[in-house]
Design brief:
6 strands, Rossmann fold, about 200 residues, globular, 6-stranded parallel β-sheet, alpha/beta
Length: about 200
């Protein structure tokens, strides 16, 4: 169960500040993000101003940034690259890793997380991954030896059918056993992973 515990739990990416990272994960040099339902709704093509501001702030402090997505179809994979490119005027560089780069391996499996470490040029223990799913984002980052994992409440509209019908209810049932809020609306508050 300990590999399902995030380092931090918060209401949104906008709540993730350099101060929180430095306080709870001081070794972290790079922050990677899931895209769908973390930074964008399932089919959206525009970032909110608050999420862009959070990314800009992290990048300005010196954190390297990446998008680590399970997008598999050509269209969904292209969207990840389009969204990274849309930030090129305000963020130095965003590293993108998708399953097509690791023979189709998806989160929570280690190869996609290891590929991000390789592509972004930062050792796994100095990376933090931010996502909206315990069973893919948090579990995957923790199993890959990332220096931190952050669980955020689902953002935007839409959800993958299986995630919405099966995974979200399962994760809600698991959260109280991990010391996390049952309801995602209660995520704001920065819960730190227990050290035992």
């Amino acid at each position: 169960m300990s590999q399902l515990r995030p380092s931090l739990c918060m209401g949104s990416v906008a709540e993730l500040t350099p101060d929180l990272i430095e306080r709870h994960m001081p070794e972290v040099e790079g922050v990677t993000f899931d895209l769908d339902n973390t930074l964008l709704g399932q089919n959206e093509y525009a970032f909110s101003a608050e999420n862009v501001d959070a990314l800009i702030t992290l990048n300005a402090i010196g954190y390297r940034l990446g998008f680590l997505s399970n997008a598999q179809s050509r269209g969904r994979t292209n969207r990840v690259h389009i969204m990274a490119a849309s930030l090129s005027g305000v963020i130095e560089e965003i590293t993108v890793v998708t399953p097509s780069m690791v023979e189709g391996k998806k989160k929570p499996f280690r190869p996609i997380f290891d590929k991000m470490s390789e592509e972004i040029g930062i050792e796994s223990e100095k990376l933090c991954h931010v996502g909206d799913q315990l069973l893919k984002d948090v579990l995957g980052a923790n199993r890959a030896g990332y220096g931190g994992s952050v669980l955020v409440a689902p953002y935007g509209r839409g959800d993958d059918l299986l995630v919405g019908l099966l995974q979200r209810p399962l994760e809600a049932a698991l959260r109280p056993f991990l010391g996390l809020p049952f309801l995602t609306r209660d995520f704001s508050g920065h819960y730190q992973r227990s050290q035992n």
